[in-house]
Amino acid sequence: MQGNKFWNEELETLSRGRLEELQLRSLQEELAHAYANSPYYKRAWDEAGVHPDDVKTLGDLTKFPFIDKKTQRDTQGVGSFLGELAAVPEEDVVFVSTSSGSTGVPTLSPFTAQDFDEFQETEARLFWQAGLRPNDRYVHALNFALYVGGPDVIGAQRTGALCIWAGAIPSERLLFILKTYQPTVIWTSPSYIIALGEKALQSGIDPKKDLSIKKIIVAGEMGGSIGATRQAITDIWGAELYDFYGLSDIFGACAAHCEYHDGLHIAEEHIYVETVDLSTGELLPPGERGELVYTTLRKKARPIIRFRTGDIGRIDLTPCKCGRTHGRIFVDGRKDDMFIVSAVNVYPSDIEYVIRALPEISNEYTIRIFEENYTCKYEVNVENVTEQTDDKIRELVINALKARIGVKPAIVNVLPGGTLERSTHKAKRVIDQRTETVAKLQGDGI
Fold first, then answer.
1. Residue 443: pLDDT above 60?
2. Does 328 lie in the same domain as 192?
3. Is 225:199 a contact under the CB 8 Å cutoff?
4. Residues 361 and 394 reside in one and the same domain
């Protein structure tokens, strides 16, 4: 299989018509399973006047109500340990993960044995898509502590690659592994791979010359699909970068780059994707930008039906140059993170693009959103890595942000290199200090 381009060629190259037939059959079965076994879905759908039998086409899914993170939190632990969204008894569950809890109470994600096996089969496919092969040595540098991305290493092993279960360990230890075992592929977060590269250089290790990393997989943050961040990582490591995307609500990585890096192929036999208007929830046609809504098609432990992810992006259903026909998602940012300054929508990913493209400052930054006279403003903290004065660096950053975003920051704090905290997992870069009232007004676009 070493020379095969596809992990499962028949599945990955299905025509759009055959893929949608498969999705419809799976959707009908998933809705029937959820209605018969999940207390929440039966109650919510009865109240909405809808029934699984109403679904004759994929478009009929729009008759069903949305769920979101609040739904998960409100139903978690209600009636049973697994909660009212679950559709199997606890004895059928073999694995649970939790969300990071970075934006609220961590939510439990259960898996049956079948769910888990199909989860890892999908991981193997995405790893193969990113070029992982049996002759590779792979380092899994993700957190194993209840994080849904931890078990993805099992999918890597299915490809036949030699796998090193490193986990989230101190930089010195991880660099020892990279130096001693000379792995060729690594997966971690965008923030950490940059910090690790900086640490290597400070330790006298040149990642390009002294290490053997040829491919880097990143996930958990936006950076992997942001051009400037990708370039910053490539400049340090000299390796090809692949972005993976997943969410604990369904399973680990469910979408990933192929060799063309033109969007992330999502596993459409497992997830049906809709895009809806941010305000009205009205369905948008493929290709238009809105909030991504996901429905599981095969998950038994906890079906997820019309889940508003909070991710802003679009899906392209046209075939890719790689030959794969599954749709490609493009994620621009989080709805929760977007803020409005002088009637301009500002996404932290746009700020990251600017900062990572400026060689005069380091790759680390933080953003503070605050209010002044009931007006939303933002502050940026950066690090000066040149001999230029802080005032010149400040002017450079302000002008670059104004040109890219349309509104300049109220404050730019220029700090010495190495001042800002380096993250070993998901970096917390956005600090929102608006009051609840002002934040809601901003979120409503007022």
1. no
2. yes
3. no
4. yes
- Structural domain of residue 169, as residue ranges? 1-334
How many residues are there in the chain? Answer: 446
Number of helices (H), then strands (E), belonging to the chain: the values are 13, 20
Give 378's Cβ-side CA count (13 Å radius): 31
Per DSSP bridges, beta strands 137-140 and 162-164 are: parallel
For the ranges 128-137, 358-367, 433-442, the lowest mean pLDDT is seen at 433-442
Instruction: Please enumerate in sequence order all residues whose Cβ is within 8 A of that of 333, keeping only pairs 6 or more positions apart, or say none.
Output: 222, 311, 312, 347, 348, 349, 350
Per-residue model confidence (pLDDT) at position 441: 46
Count of CB atoms situated within 10 Å of the CB of 212: 15
What residue has token string 């909405």?
A: 48
Sequence letter at residue 74: D
Are 314 and 359 part of one and the same domain?
Answer: no
The residue among 270, 299, 334 that closes a domain is: 334
Please name the residue that has the structure tokens 């997966």.
187
DSSP structure class, residue 52 = G
In sequence order, the β-bridge partners of residue 242 are: 217
C-alpha distance from residue 395 to each of 203, 392, 407 (Å) = 32, 5, 14
